[in-house]
């Protein structure tokens, strides 16, 4: 295989995954580690990717900021989105909520409601929903999904979390994506977040996305829901004139601006 062909295939992998290990390149292209190493050096020399320990990353691969940073960004807009989402819910429903700054605000809104069953992998959401004195009873049933945790994380993750999701059926999944796009659907940056969101989507009767205007028209590296799976999109009023939102309005059953 010519080097030009190999480089094209490696770039195709990067466009999909944003990060590719040397082992993955060796396996996908059927080449030696030494050949893979030379191709990695060449791609970096051409300014098309950046070498890291164990492989390559795309130059535009930018992770989401930490949750505490995201919580402070556009807090007013996210609060309005959370309130609009709460108005769509009814007592007796079972909900999935993922870990995000907007869904944490949604959890705060749900404390004033009753009769809900809320299943989440978010520690922040679970703490908000269970904030009460020990002798008091909660308005809603709160189920915190098990799984692994990492330093600084405020969520459970991993295979155990995903397998637990498949034990439940929910009426609605309320998720906060990194981006939502008329062609690509809903996406996250990290594979573990996408795996959880994908499982929640599959196990819910309806998917509601909570996405402020900065996420409209954005496609991150890990898609978890196709556009046809999204029932409702809730954004803020600053999204009103975005061409990407107009495209989503033409496709989605319901788009709300809070």
Annotated CATH topology of the largest domain: Rossmann fold
Q: Quaternary status of these chains?
A: single chain
Percent of residues in β-strands: 15-25%
Distance between the termini: 54 Å
Number of helices: 10
Order of helices and strands: HEHHEEHHEHEHEHEEEHEEEHE
Mean pLDDT over all positions: 89
Q: What is the top-level CATH class of the largest domain?
A: Alpha Beta
The tally of structural domains comes to: 2
Uncertain stretches: none
Q: Describe the main β-sheet briefly.
A: 7 strands, parallel
Secondary-structure-based class equals alpha/beta
What's the shape?
globular
What Rg do the Cα atoms give? 20 Å
Query: What CATH architecture of the largest domain do you see?
Result: 3-Layer(aba) Sandwich
The total count of strands amounts to 13
**Order of strands across the main sheet:** 6-5-4-7-10-12-13
Helical residues, percent:
25-40%
In short:
This protein has 258 residues and is an alpha/beta fold.
